[in-house]
């Protein structure tokens, strides 16, 4: 079983000063960088996903802006593929699936932003496509939402999505718990 790290949309617009600031983006990026360092140290595959807005009226991840660039904490190396997407699902209209199949990858470790949107959508799609997924919950960030006049805090959104994904769709773990789990997979 071959394993790869997928970092989803850890881009400048989600950080303080960006046009779509998330709660806990800096903390999540620190943890994602720790996970990235582990994969690089073990010479394991890393894939970066970058959202570029293509929809009319979009306010963030606009093409050619600093906000759309991948955050410096997880900046890709030249040898690490970066797949651009225009939809929440990282597989939709991207070469991600073909790349994973071509590399013989069957297990994914995922981290990124936003938990309730692109992370959730990608994990569900990956599971449907037959991949085994682990989600680094502390290397993800989201924002507050509302529905029908009810405000939902970012913390509640985060825990709700993690709870929904844990089990059937992914093994949801902290970065510190995932790192030894990754080593165990390789032995």
* Proportion of residues in β-strands: 15-25%
The DSSP helix count reads 5
Q: Gyration radius, to the nearest Å?
A: 15 Å
DSSP strand tally: 8
Lateral strand order in the biggest sheet: 3-2-1-4-5-8
Structural class: alpha/beta
Based on Cα principal axes, name the global outline: globular
Q: Helix share of residues? A: 25-40%
Sequence stretches where pLDDT stays below 50 over 5 or more residues? none
**Average pLDDT rating:** 96
Distance between the termini: 11 Å
Please provide the ordered H/E string of secondary-structure elements: EHEEHEHEEEHEH
Largest beta-sheet characterization: 6 strands, parallel
Provide an overview of this structure:
The protein has 187 residues and is of the alpha/beta class. The protein is 33% helix and 24% strand. It is built from five helices and eight strands, in the order βαββαβαβββαβα. The protein has helices spanning 25-41, 96-102, 115-128, 154-165, 175-186; strands at 2-8, 46-51, 82-85, 105-113, 132-141, 145-147, 150-152, 171-173. Helix 3 runs parallel beside helix 4. It is globular, with a radius of gyration of 15 Å. It starts with a strand and ends with a helix. The mean pLDDT is 96.
